[in-house]
Design a protein that fits this description.
Two copies of one chain form a homodimer. By secondary structure, chain A is mainly alpha-helical. Chain A has eight helices and no strands. Chain A has one domain: Methane Monooxygenase Hydroxylase, Chain G, domain 1, CATH 1.20.58.220. Helices cover 85% and strands 0% of the residues of chain A.
């Protein structure tokens, strides 16, 4: 029975990783579409998130079934509960990749606005956070997960910088307005992707250490 | 034992409702701050989401404890799993209210940009969706939950309209750019709040009917 249960947990692990790969691929491809000005690729990302959505439903159902049939406790229970939450975050990241694809398709209707400022760099940072948060999940690596949480500020700062720079563009040349607004929204979406990767990392820390790090509760507890 | 468990489920119910009231209040207050140009109120929303964050952690822990101690099955299990997910969505709505408060504080540094177009109306629609999705949750009312899902398109359409209108403003008068961008972001945040209310409503339908309505799977299944 326990061996059978372990095998099922392993399958859940694989589903989450599979979901993560799809999401990472979507972010990578939409950024490639933006940089290379490749509209068909952006279209493909925009229309390609059905597999992510279906997998989300399958993972939810697998989690509920595991809870119902095996009534796990301790770390197995934590694992399944965290899988439910991570699943949610991954699905949102997929939605955000679709949102970026929509903005990209708008952007490709007009000439390129400068070299996209720091957006590709933001995207790389966000993708790396997604990748590392899932790595941390597979390897139950709390140190790597903590490292992911720390990097969230870098993406936020880069986004603030991109935002300010794009405002300057718009003010000095109103012809750039629609494109600059689209890029501001792309920046926002990337920032949200990094936020979700941070959520995943926080869930990994909870999974490994049974400790909540959300909302900087730790520092707060230490401070009081 | 069962009676004790039922009492604990009731407490979980109350926690979720409490979380919902805090979130609804935050959205209502930040919109009041924007309309009345009340910076201290916007500050209060910006700094006031700690209780929401703490409650999120408490609800997560309550869910895990209930799963571990009572090893529920059937509809009780679905209820706890949905509470975990709804909790997540409510916490994000709280974050979005904080984001709107940040934009509002920026906006209040400059003169009012026209009568905020349809933003207050969008906010009312979104708040009503949040309210009804939680009502549907308490009353296990799948019909009301379905109705909430249908209203998501209205908010999306209103947001597209607001977006286009603000672009026109910026292009005809570049002095409005920073304010218009802030309002575009407020519109986005409200649209995301409505998305999260839709998630809650979908979870309620699943809870009541044991049926997944996410990603329009139903229509797809009917079509094949």
């Amino acid at each position: 029975m326990q061996r059978h249960f372990d095998a099922e947990l392993q399958l859940l692990n694989q589903d989450i990783l599979q979901m993560g790969s799809l999401v990472e691929a979507a972010i990578g491809q939409v950024m490639k579409a933006l940089v290379d000005r490749n509209a068909p690729l952006a279209e493909a990302v925009k229309n390609g998130d059905d597999p992510i959505n279906w997998l989300e439903i399958a993972i939810d159902e697998r989690c509920l079934e595991l809870l119902a049939r095996h009534q796990p406790a301790g770390s197995d229970l934590r694992f399944i509960a965290m899988a439910l939450k991570i699943n949610n975050d991954l699905e949102r990241m997929g939605d955000l990749a679709v949102n970026i694809a929509e903005r990209t398709l708008d952007l490709l209707k007009e000439p390129l606005l400068k070299p996209l400022i720091d957006i590709p760099r933001m995207s790389l940072l966000a993708q790396q956070m997604v990748n590392d948060s899932l790595d941390a999940f597979v390897r139950r690596d709390a140190a790597l997960a903590r490292n992911v949480c720390q990097r969230d500020d870098d993406v936020d700062n880069l986004n603030d910088q991109v935002f300010r720079e794009l405002l300057t563009y718009m003010i000095s040349d109103p012809k750039t307005i629609t494109r600059a607004v689209d890029l501001i929204l792309v920046g926002r979406h990337l920032e949200r992707i990094a936020d979700h990767a941070t959520n995943v990392a926080e869930d990994v820390i909870y999974l490994v250490q049974g400790k909540t790090v959300k909302h900087h509760l730790e520092e707060r507890q230490l401070a009081t």
